[in-house]
Design a protein that fits this description.
Layout lengths: L2 H19 L8 E6 L6 H13 L3 E6 L11 E4 L5 H9 L14 E5 L11 H7 L6 E8 L16 H8 L2 E7 H12 L19 E8 L5 E12 L5 E7 L4 H10 L7 H6 L10 H8 L6 H5 L9 H5 L1
Keywords: Cytoplasm, Nucleus, tRNA processing
InterPro entries: Elp5, P-loop_NTPase
GO cellular component, one term: cytosol
């Protein structure tokens, strides 16, 4: 990929992430965050809340495991033990729009865990009932390492995570940056991937890796990996900074070491001595560039069925 194309792809991916976190234009009505005890989803939830408050959106925290109301949340709804119908009525009672002269109110619903609601066949109906308007966004957490009881009546039902991932318009899988870097280094050396978190005897911490997959209006999935690092901003307030995983200094340094004097990267490959040449002559390179590939028009012309969303027009 050409440098200009790479820069455009980076800008496009960062804009999509910012649009998701800022809840712009109903970017994702249902966002599923997949975490574990090794790396909690709390930093990502706090970032959603911070940006929602900055945009003057109303934050409703639906608690199935949290005891105290988060300081930045406007409303706390204790959902444990309540039937889904009663819970839906209570949530929608807070989703009131002001009279016409006032600007429409946006809402952010946060569900701290989905596990007490699983496995329930009426969960899709419940989720649909609390998302009656594009002004409402729901962010729900799924704990990947917490077992879910097997359904008794639906023998061939899909796994809960598979089912929820198909319903969500965006999935965010969180992990520790230190764990990701260690795993990358082990794979590059053909070593076993190290164990982290509970198996290692400690929890993850520091910077968080976000493995984001967004579904566009056409249904096409767009995936990218980011690093979220918490820093201290003005007035001592915590602020989040985002960078693509491949551009993070730890990964850049790892690539540089792989291509340096260690003999594992590109530098050694270019200087290796062989009994035959794998390169192309200048004439062969010109001949190859002059070849017209089959179906070349289909590669350059965009059909009506291709995805071309409004946010791409903005970019």
């Amino acid at each position: 990929m050409a440098p200009s194309a790479q820069a455009h792809q980076r800008s496009h991916s960062m804009l999509l992430l910012q649009k998701l976190l800022n809840l712009r234009d109903s970017a994702s009505p249902l966002t599923l965050i997949i975490d574990s005890l090794e790396q909690t989803a709390r930093p990502v939830l706090n970032e959603f809340i911070t940006r929602a408050k900055f945009a003057r959106s109303k934050v409703i925290f639906i608690s199935l495991a949290t005891v105290k109301k988060p300081p930045s949340a406007d409303i706390l709804i204790k959902a444990r033990g309540k039937p889904l119908r009663d819970l839906s009525i209570e949530i929608t009672s807070h989703l009131l729009q002001p009279p016409p002269p006032a600007p429409p109110q946006k809402y952010l619903l946060l569900l701290d865990t989905l596990h007490p609601l699983l496995p329930l066949p009426h969960l899709p109906t419940f989720l649909q009932s609390i998302l009656p308007s594009p002004l409402i966004s729901l962010v729900a957490v799924y704990h990947a390492d917490v077992p879910v009881p097997a359904p008794t009546s639906q023998e061939y039902a899909p796994a809960p995570l598979t089912f929820l991932s198909s319903l969500a318009t965006t999935t965010i899988r969180v992990s520790s940056l230190a764990h990701e870097v260690a795993a990358r280094q082990a794979q590059r050396r053909s070593l076993p991937v190290p164990e982290h978190g509970l198996r290692e005897g400690r929890e993850g911490g520091g910077s968080v890796v976000l493995d984001v997959e967004m579904r566009r209006r056409s249904g096409r999935a767009v995936g990218e990996r980011f690093v979220m690092t918490m820093t201290t901003g003005e007035g001592g307030k915590a602020a989040a900074q985002f960078v693509m995983l491949g551009d993070h200094p730890l990964f850049v340094e790892d690539v540089a070491r792989a291509g340096g004097a260690g003999g594992e990267g590109k530098g050694e490959e270019e200087g290796a001595e062989t009994t035959f040449s794998l390169g192309l002559t200048e004439k062969q390179r010109r001949d190859r560039e002059g070849v017209v590939l089959p179906y070349f028009d289909a590669q350059t012309d965009m059909g009506r069925e291709d995805d071309f969303d409004d946010e791409e027009d903005e970019i």
